[in-house]
Specification:
The chain is an alpha+beta fold. Helices cover 37% and strands 25% of the residues. The strands form 4 sheets. Strands 8-7-6-5-10-9 form a 6-stranded antiparallel sheet. Strands 11-12-14-13 form a 4-stranded mixed sheet, covered by helices on one side. The chain has a two-stranded parallel sheet with strand order 1-4.
Amino acid sequence: MSPGRPISTRIIVALSVGIALVLVSAAAWAKETVWTAILSNLGEVQKLRPMDNRRQYELEAKGAKVTGFPDDFLRRRTLAEIIKSGLSCGCGDYAFAFCFLIESKGFQTIYIDAVALNYSAIEHGDSGHTGIAVKDRDSGSWILVDPTNNKIISADWDPTAMLYESPAGQFWIGYKGPLDKYPVADHPGLRVFYAETLRSVPKDVWEKELLAFDFVVDNSLKTKDGAYANPNMEAFLGRPAVTFKALGIHPSRSVKVTLKSWDKKTGTSDVIQESDGSWTCFVQDRGRMSASLTDWITAAIFRSTGRR
């Protein structure tokens, strides 16, 4: 036998190494488990089919049979009822279902509901988004998930954060906490919740999230006598100024946007940046020119340039 440590010492060293490997493996397994659970449950949630806003449904809601359009079921059904129906009326249902599934595996969650930081939310008071934060039991960090868009937003989310950015846009959080403490129980309650959350958004946040526009209307969107061909154009052009006055803000960034008629052959609308830094937006001649169009232009610019 070769000289070296006594057999008993080598046995102890081997056992120590073995125990250490087991502990490391256990820690790695714990971390893998949270990610595996998140990914598998995201897959399950994506099996929910979106409801058609044009039709009515008869579904269970809090134990009663209810007939209504998708909005009539907003924040109204239990987690089990959503999963049983296989239908989703919006982001809340995806988040509820994901929360139900992930908590059933023993993970701690934070339910998040937030209002959109855009013109549509200000004008209609009914625009927001949900998310779920899942605690990694090994590291103690929170993993932020957007179940609706099947995305993991952050592997180390800060629970004190008030801004929530997802593929759906930028949002201001109105509630974050246990799902069973969530205060909204129906669509009217959701509208009240969004209105209250909108009032809590600091002015400096609005000034960063909204753009001021210097709109130029191309002749392709005018009649022969120079008037706007679209009767909704005047209100569209004035929307930002009206919004800024109501909020008492002065956005930190202004952009020049030329509006032109879209390609009637291809039906293509787009927002493109010109060489001088200005933007061109191709829009429908007879479109509604609603707040969602202003939001679409804003989102396209932010996607290209960031919020600088």
